[in-house]
Structure of Phosphatidylinositol-4-phosphate 5-kinase:
Amino acid sequence: MASASSGPSSVGFSSADPGVPSCASSSASGIKRPMASEVPYASGMPMKKIGHRGVDSSGETTYKKTTSSALKGAIQLGITHTVGSLSTKPERDVLMQDFYVVESIFFPSEGSNLTPAHHYNDFRFKTYAPVAFRYFRELFGIRPDDYLYSLCSEPLIELCSSGASGSLFYVSSDDEFIIKTVQHKEAEFLQKLLPGYYMNLNQNPRTLLPKFYGLYCVQAGGKNIRIVVMNNLLPRSVKMHIKYDLKGSTYKRRASQKEREKPLPTFKDLDFLQDIPDGLFLDADMYNALCKTLQRDCLVLQSFKIMDYSLLMSIHNIDHAQREPLGNETQYSVDTRRPAPQKALYSTAMESIQGEARRGGTMETDDHMGGIPARNSKGERLLLYIGIIDILQSYR
């Protein structure tokens, strides 16, 4: 890790910075926590229904009574069609009315002159603001064929961890994109947010805010299942040793016992203060870039009247990983090979704060892998994977 001329700074997120989740000032992810079973929490245990997420009699995950396999198939069929049809339309500037367009196509199981036959129940697929989202994807260097290949060439992978709201999460097989089910109000809010989001990204694509690449709806069994496609903050090819959801608040900000029993729990602010009382060491330039990005992003969120967001921080301990025996992996480190260079620009935490877009290659070194280099108070080398999450809720 490069050090500043004055040496590495003992730095953290200052609580004096308005709206910036507070971290502290210098220490560890050499944290010894009693880890629960390494077996995913779904295995062998009957899963309770959380929100719209449930399990059918065969043990398969369902969402609004649609099986996960049927939902994945519908998503891939729908995205293949909508991206293909969009490619026939000439490129042009985004107009105000583009933010409010909704395109809809019916997929009967027997097929039609526009859609292929499939073995799922009939469904309808809606695409929101297709021209606007095409622009967002282009802004981040995502070509239509890359978007299609990532999402539709291989089966989507369902992630075991669901949100507290019962959202379903899928990741593309190349680790590039996350697909998340969202509630009606969240999808509605994203639609309202799009013009301002467009303006903000135009001014500065280097941000820790979520990168939204598509908003869709699968209508099946009389239910609307809304999904959003986003950048993947946490590559599965990098083992995460500990993870925090930080709000800069301490009121009821401790992970529940149920959360702690998961293979990779999401800890909260009080846990962070207990585990890492001295904070984290970052290089001075890296710290300044991170603070500048966070402060700017928080001002954007404030302008949209968004309050209930979090800073997700996942930590990979390089020194711990080098001591761990090969094959000692969890569901979060399923692939020990080097991750392929990501297709999207500004998609990693490192790029988001430095703004150094790749040109014909990858800026990720063997040491960084897209993470922000840091150290704990023991001097152990860390990689921080950071992003702002849960922005689709507003307070009026």
Summary: The longest strand covers residues 212-220. Residues 1-46, 329-339, 356-366 have pLDDT under 50 and may be disordered. The two ends are 44 Å apart (CA to CA). The chain has two domains: 13-41+235-389, 53-231.
